[in-house]
């Protein structure tokens, strides 16, 4: 029965009972006797109680829908309001769930376009840094070498310092270009790219242990890029914010695809810590390939970033690989 007919039926019953009392043998004396007042009050209280119960039961699904709308987050897809209640309420909940389906699909499509454009821009900037700025600094370094060979003894020290500064700038340009577009990922695959990433972040204060388990399934190019970018962002956050001196970078096959784990021994995110731009970026990338992403404190302390690529993110058997 719809909410309209429930409330209408309840009100109709109340009016019918009132009319029957007026037309029936029941009378009310003047002044009102205590017994008569008691009967009237009991009848009124009963009608109000039944009316409250009907409204509470009928409007409860709307309260659940309001809470579901408040908690909705497109970065945590899949949560839907339970369809229940009268016909009108159930139809409203189904409409809301359909709207969430469309919003999640449209957001995934727009995020994929945005991240694809971002990767193309990264590639363009990396190429320009390597081809233009890198070659210019290389030419400057060669010129400084010729100047140092002909410079007087009292100037060779300063020219040498200029050479070292130029060489350091050239190395930094190459490092930035590698981080913008990891050529090793395109040329040698994910495992070699992760090995290079671990070596890059291993410094005097941070040790990155790489553990790649055998039996990894074949991955699409998009999946490998997302795994690499998530590992890169997780290691960057660890180096900048965690205060850790040891990081575990692990890639292994899982029952539902492949799992990436980045876990450190630092301070951890804390119970009240929110998700910053880096974590939100990792979550968005995971959504692009249908992967499950979790971020939080590790079992033994520190921070753990886990990404598990679902079977839908993997290429079909016999499909074209990169």
TrEMBL record:
<keyword id="KW-0418">Kinase</keyword>
<keyword id="KW-0547">Nucleotide-binding</keyword>
<feature type="domain" description="HAMP">
    <location>
        <begin position="56"/>
        <end position="108"/>
    </location>
</feature>
<dbReference type="InterPro" id="IPR050482">
    <property type="entry name" value="Sensor_HK_TwoCompSys"/>
</dbReference>
<dbReference type="InterPro" id="IPR011712">
    <property type="entry name" value="Sig_transdc_His_kin_sub3_dim/P"/>
</dbReference>
<dbReference type="InterPro" id="IPR003660">
    <property type="entry name" value="HAMP_dom"/>
</dbReference>
<feature type="transmembrane region" description="Helical">
    <location>
        <begin position="38"/>
        <end position="59"/>
    </location>
</feature>
<dbReference type="InterPro" id="IPR003594">
    <property type="entry name" value="HATPase_dom"/>
</dbReference>
<protein>
    <recommendedName>
        <fullName>histidine kinase</fullName>
        <ecNumber>2.7.13.3</ecNumber>
    </recommendedName>
</protein>
<keyword id="KW-0808">Transferase</keyword>
<dbReference type="Pfam" id="PF02518">
    <property type="entry name" value="HATPase_c"/>
</dbReference>
<dbReference type="InterPro" id="IPR036890">
    <property type="entry name" value="HATPase_C_sf"/>
</dbReference>
<dbReference type="GO" id="GO:0016301">
    <property type="term" value="F:kinase activity"/>
</dbReference>
<keyword id="KW-0067">ATP-binding</keyword>
<keyword id="KW-1133">Transmembrane helix</keyword>
<keyword id="KW-0472">Membrane</keyword>
<keyword id="KW-0902">Two-component regulatory system</keyword>
<keyword id="KW-0812">Transmembrane</keyword>
<dbReference type="Pfam" id="PF07730">
    <property type="entry name" value="HisKA_3"/>
</dbReference>
<keyword id="KW-0597">Phosphoprotein</keyword>
């Amino acid at each position: 029965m719809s909410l309209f007919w429930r409330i209408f039926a309840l009100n109709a019953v109340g009016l019918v009972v009132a009319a029957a009392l007026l037309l029936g043998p029941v009378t009310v004396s003047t002044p009102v006797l205590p017994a008569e007042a008691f009967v009237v009050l009991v009848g009124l209280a009963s009608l109000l109680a039944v009316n409250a119960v009907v409204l509470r039961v009928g409007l409860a699904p709307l309260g659940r829908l309001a809470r579901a709308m408040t908690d909705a987050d497109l970065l945590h897809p899949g949560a839907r309001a339970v369809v229940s209640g009268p016909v009108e309420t159930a139809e409203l909940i189904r409409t809301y769930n359909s709207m969430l389906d469309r919003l999640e699909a449209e957001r995934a499509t727009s995020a994929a376009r945005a991240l694809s454009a971002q990767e193309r821009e990264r590639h363009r900037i990396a190429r320009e840094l390597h081809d233009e700025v890198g070659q210019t600094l290389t030419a400057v370094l060669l010129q400084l070498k010729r100047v140092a060979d002909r410079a007087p003894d009292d100037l060779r020290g300063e020219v040498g310092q200029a050479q070292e500064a130029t060489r350091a700038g050239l190395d930094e340009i190459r490092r930035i270009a590698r981080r913008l577009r990891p050529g090793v990922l395109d040329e040698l695959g994910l495992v070699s790219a992760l090995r290079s990433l671990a070596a890059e972040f291993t410094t005097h204060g941070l040790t990155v242990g790489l553990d790649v388990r055998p039996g990894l399934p074949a991955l699409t190019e998009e999946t490998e890029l997302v795994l690499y970018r998530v590992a890169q962002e997780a290691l960057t956050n660890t180096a900048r914010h965690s205060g850790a001196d040891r990081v575990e970078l692990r890639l292994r096959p899982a029952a539902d695809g492949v799992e990436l784990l980045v876990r450190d021994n630092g301070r951890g995110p804390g119970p009240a810590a929110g998700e910053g731009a880096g974590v939100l970026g990792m979550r968005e990338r995971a959504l692009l390939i249908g992967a499950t992403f979790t971020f939080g404190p590790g079992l033994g302390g520190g921070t753990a970033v886990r990404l598990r690529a679902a079977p839908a993110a993997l290429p079909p058997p016999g499909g074209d690989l990169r």
